[in-house]
């Protein structure tokens, strides 16, 4: 039995069986909007405990992992769109290389056996933080490399890929139908390949066809970089994030008061309250839908699987997930999962670096990505906040695409502001930290929510870690000389201060929080990148604030966009009969 599985079972045994003579953490209650209704919270916990004692022993104890584990379904979609782009722009099918980079925003805190609050600093070379730092990177370097190397050795299996695609939810039927003509070619290209190779200290990227990962020290922190063909290395992002979260959680548990059993106890309690609150206030009255967006930060595989087993029981047909691990492992046990997901920020970020010639005033390159994604997947939803949602919406209008939008997803900034911007369209929110976010969203008219760590994995009684991994570079290699041309990308997101408007942003008051979420390559000019993205996002926000709408996309850039779309549509690979619908859609969008 693995240590995490043993800890889960021990934590389940500690769950209350009857009566009210037990405590629930104040912050755990608050996160589930149950501070004023502790009796209901305790009832939720007792109901869950009865189920958990019966079924936790049946949770699979996974020891062998595949490359698709801890992926989200959207990665299976995005990779195929990226593969299509590679085949349409590169005669060797691998296309441009992309670099992903980790960004640790906040170290986690924990309570030591002596009752002190401490900060885990195992990714810091020389910890300098409060409360008292615990650990440093030099102490864990060897073990961290072993953990990363084990993840990199995982391989793709054709059978699993087909199983996962068949597990998609009903709404994703259009996506699979549209991509069906190229899926077997894509599966054959992945089958049997390993996830990535971990480079030795001091070794540099080879800029070849394999995916590679290296660890560098930047400004006193260990940073993980991954590079490879974009459609391949996209899978490295999620698994590296999960590896880091699991590694840091294990290090935290080794030093904390409750250890791994304590971590699982807090996770189980938080999960039980959230699961029942969603069922009671969202699903049962049919006010909206909640999807489990979890996997990339799941530190305990057995807890992750238990979540899926219980939610499929409690929520029934209302349950959908993004987790490829749960779909692979639980389906053969008679618990099939419905996979949900569409796109991510890496699309517009990559095209910012790939097609900067379109971005003379605003990021028109993100319109090219949008058209490519829509045409290849037949899914016309948008994730618009990479460079500012108001700017994105105005660009859609400028190039004649706004009426094509089927739904919009909020992932940063303010719920009310986003709903104002995309008022005519169904909206979903995926930046959910506390249950009141769902309640506020429903009051605003949101029809869906994607919830990840908030459904149990995010600790409430201490500050939790915050870490992301984003695409920050595109690399194109000159075949004749071998020279690598590196271009940079960044992400700003929507503003959470200033009423949600970058046009009203105050650097003195809001700079610390805003800049903490901004990310770009450590090789880029960070100041210039910030100013560029801020200028883009402010342009749309200013128009939304004033109510004065004017075109942001210059006519020359709109014409250049149409040319770029036709160039992709005319690629020989897309001229095959089974891709005719994609080519036709590209040509239609080029005419708008």
Give a brief rundown of this model.
The protein has 592 residues and is an alpha/beta fold. 46% of the residues lie in helices and 13% in strands. Helix 12 packs across helix 13.
Give the overall shape.
globular
DSSP summary, beta strand count = 16
Strand order in the largest sheet? 5-6-7-1-13-14
Helix content bin: 40-55%
Average pLDDT confidence is: 94
What multimeric state do the chains show? Answer: single chain
Query: Major sheet: size, sense and barrel closure?
Result: 6 strands, mixed
Kindly provide the radius of gyration, computed on alpha-carbon positions and rounded to a whole number of angstroms: 23 Å
Which regions have little confidence, pLDDT < 50, spanning 5+ residues?
none
Strand content: 5-15%
Give the CA-CA distance, first to last residue.
Answer: 59 Å
Structural class: alpha/beta
DSSP helix count? Answer: 20
How is the topology of this model organized?
Elements: H1 3-13, H2 26-31, H3 38-55, H4 73-89, E1 97-106, E2 109-111, E3 117-120, E4 133-134, H5 137-152, H6 158-166, H7 173-190, E5 197-198, E6 212-218, E7 221-229, H8 230-255, H9 259-283, E8 289-292, H10 301-314, H11 324-330, H12 346-354, H13 365-377, E9 381-382, H14 389-398, E10 407-410, H15 415-421, E11 427-429, H16 435-444, E12 448-451, E13 466-477, E14 484-488, E15 490-491, H17 507-517, E16 519-520, H18 526-546, H19 555-569, H20 580-590
Helix pairs in contact: 1-9, 3-9, 4-7, 4-8, 4-13, 5-8, 6-7, 8-9, 9-10, 10-11, 12-13, 13-20, 14-18, 19-20
């Amino acid at each position: 039995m693995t240590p995490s599985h043993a800890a889960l079972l021990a934590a389940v045994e500690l769950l209350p069986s009857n009566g009210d003579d037990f405590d629930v953490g104040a912050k755990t209650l608050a996160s589930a909007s149950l501070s004023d209704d502790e009796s209901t919270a305790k009832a939720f916990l007792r109901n869950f405990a009865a189920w958990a004692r019966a079924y936790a022993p049946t949770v699979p104890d996974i020891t062998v992992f595949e490359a698709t584990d801890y992926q989200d379904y959207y990665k299976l979609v995005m990779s195929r769109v990226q593969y299509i782009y590679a085949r349409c722009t590169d005669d060797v099918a691998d296309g441009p290389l992309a670099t992903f980079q980790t960004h640790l925003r906040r170290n986690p805190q924990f309570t030591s056996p002596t009752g002190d609050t401490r900060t885990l600093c195992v990714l810091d070379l020389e910890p300098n933080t409060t409360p008292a730092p615990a650990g440093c990177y030099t102490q864990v370097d060897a073990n961290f490399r072993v953990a990363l190397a084990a993840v990199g050795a995982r391989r793709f299996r054709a059978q699993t890929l087909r199983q996962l695609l068949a597990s998609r939810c009903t709404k994703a039927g259009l996506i699979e139908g549209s991509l069906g003509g190229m899926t077997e070619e894509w599966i054959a290209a992945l089958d049997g390949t390993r996830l990535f190779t971990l480079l030795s200290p001091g070794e540099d990227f080879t800029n070849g066809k394999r995916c590679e990962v290296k660890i560098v020290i930047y400004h006193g922190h260990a940073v993980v970089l991954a590079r490879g063909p974009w459609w391949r290395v996209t899978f490295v992002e999620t698994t590296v994030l999960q590896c880091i979260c699991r590694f840091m959680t294990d290090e935290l548990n080794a030093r904390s008061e409750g250890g791994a059993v304590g971590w699982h106890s807090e996770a189980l309690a938080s999960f039980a309250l959230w699961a029942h609150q969603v069922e009671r206030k969202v699903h049962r009255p049919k006010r909206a839908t909640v999807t489990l967006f979890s996997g990339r930060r799941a530190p305990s595989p057995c807890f992750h699987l238990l979540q899926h087993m219980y939610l499929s029981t409690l929520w029934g047909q209302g349950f959908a997930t993004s987790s490829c691990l749960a779909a692979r492992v639980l389906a053969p046990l008679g618990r099939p999962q419905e996979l949900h997901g569409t796109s991510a920020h890496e699309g517009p970020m990559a095209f910012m670096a790939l097609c900067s010639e379109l971005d003379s005033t605003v990021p028109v390159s993100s319109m090219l990505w949008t058209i490519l994604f829509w045409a290849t997947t037949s899914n016309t939803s948008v994730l618009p906040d990479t460079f500012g949602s108001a700017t994105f919406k105005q660009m859609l209008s400028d190039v004649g695409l706004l009426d094509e939008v089927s739904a919009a997803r909020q992932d940063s900034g303010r719920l009310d502001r986003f709903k104002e911007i995309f008022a005519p369209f169904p909206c979903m929110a995926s930046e959910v930290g506390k249950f009141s976010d769902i309640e506020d969203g429903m009051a605003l008219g949101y029809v869906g929510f994607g919830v990840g760590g908030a459904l149990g994995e995010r600790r409430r009684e201490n500050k939790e870690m915050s870490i992301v991994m984003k695409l920050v570079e595109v690399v194109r290699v000159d075949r004749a000389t071998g020279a690598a041309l590196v271009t940079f990308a960044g992400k700003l997101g929507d503003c959470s201060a200033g009423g949600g408007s970058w046009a009203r942003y105050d650097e003195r008051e809001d700079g610390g929080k805003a800049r903490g979420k901004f990310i770009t390559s450590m090789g880029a000019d960070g100041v210039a990148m910030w100013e560029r993205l801020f200028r883009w996002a402010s342009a749309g926000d200013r128009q939304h604030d004033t109510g004065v709408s004017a075109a942001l996309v210059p006519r020359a850039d709109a014409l250049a966009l149409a040319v770029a779309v036709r160039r992709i549509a005319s690629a020989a690979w897309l001229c095959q009969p089974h891709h005719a619908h994609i080519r036709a859609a590209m040509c239609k969008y080029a005419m708008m």
